[in-house]
Amino acid sequence: MSDFSDQLLTDVRRRSKVSRFRPVVFVLIPLAAILFQVYVPLFLQYLSYLEMPLLVTVYFALMRRSPLVGIFIGASIGLAQDSLSHQPIGMFGIVKTLVGYFAASVSLRFDVDNPLVRLILAFFFFFFHQFFYWVLERALLAQQWDFDIHQTLIVGALNAAVALPLFHLLDRLKETAS
Fold it and tell me: How many CB atoms lie within 10 A of CB 90?
C-alpha cells in the first residue's frame, strides 16, 4: 500500500475522535437545510439540484462516528423532510436512515477529516441516496420513475463540490475540547 492509503486507513480511532456539537446545532442546521430544500428552489430553480438535508445527514453521521447515532440522525432529518415535502411520508426517512447508518459505519474505517475523502463520500452518498430512492419508488409505490445515471452523476458531482465548503463551515460549529 502507498503512504497515502496507509494514512487514510490505518488506526483511524487513534487519530480521530467523536465530534461534539451543541444540541441547538443538531436542531437548527438540519432545519435550515430542510427549509433551504423546500423554499429556495421556489425562487431559484437551478438550486433545486442541491440536496442540503442529505449533505447535513452525511456530515453529522460522519462526525459522530456511531452507526446508531447515524440511524437516528438520518431518520429524523428524513422524516422532517418528508413532512415538508410533497412526497409520501417515509420515503426520505427510509433512505436517509440508510445513508446515516452507512456514513457513520464508513467513518469508523476512514479518516473523514481528509477533504478528498469527504468529497468522494459526498458524491458516493448522493448516488446511493438517489439509487435507493428510485428503488423504493418502484418497489413500494409502484411508480415508474426513470433513473438517469448521467444526470445523477453530474448532480452528484455538484453536490460533492458544495459539500466541501459546507463541511468546512460546519466544522467551525464543533465544540472545543476542554
Answer: 15
Q: What is the full DSSP assignment across 55-74?
A: HHHHHHHHHH--HHHHHHHH
Q: Is 87 exposed, middle or buried (0-12, 13-18, 19+ CB in 10 A)?
A: middle
Report pLDDT digits (tens) over 3-57: 555 555 544 444 557 778 888 888 999 999 999 998 998 898 888 899 999 999 9
**Strand partners for 123:** none
For residue 73, CA distances in Å to 62, 64, 172 come to 11, 10, 19
* Contact between residue 97 and residue 53 where contact means Cβ atoms under 8 Å apart: no
What is the Rg, in whole angstroms, of the alpha carbon atoms belonging to the chain? Answer: 16
Cβ atoms within 10 A of the Cβ of 78, count?
A: 27
Least confident of 82-91, 130-139, 156-165: 82-91
Cα gap 65→14, rounded to integer Å: 13
